[in-house]
Amino acid sequence: MLTNHDMDRTCPFACLLVGQPTLRRMVKLGVLAALDQRIAVRCHMNGMTAEETATYLRHHLQLAGRSDPLFSDDAITLIHQTSRGKPRTVNNIAIQSLVATFAEGKAIVDENATRTAINEVIATE
Questions:
Q1: What is the pLDDT at residue 5?
Q2: What PANTHER family does this protein map onto (predicted)?
């Protein structure tokens, strides 16, 4: 949370800066020292657990209107292990897994499609 105590008396101001770990490193740069000094609270979000990753994927499928399983348990485990539970990476691998599954003409995302997806995601990062 970013605050400016000089302004707090007449014009309260607070701002939330939310971003990837690179944001924290950028704020630490010398040219942003004044900004860094005003950050009152810093928080780091750990990756999701294996169970949370599975729930996260199922929830997104439900939001898309899918009620029955689309990812095999092995695929979900591999997605979690590779992504370390980081939501953005989970999303990228899951999307590429869906593409690989479609390309193979299969109905369920399996471990093989997920491995193909991981190779694609890693190659583009």
A1: 57
A2: GENERAL SECRETION PATHWAY PROTEIN A-RELATED (PTHR35894), PHOSPHORIBULOKINASE _ URIDINE KINASE FAMILY (PTHR35894:SF1)
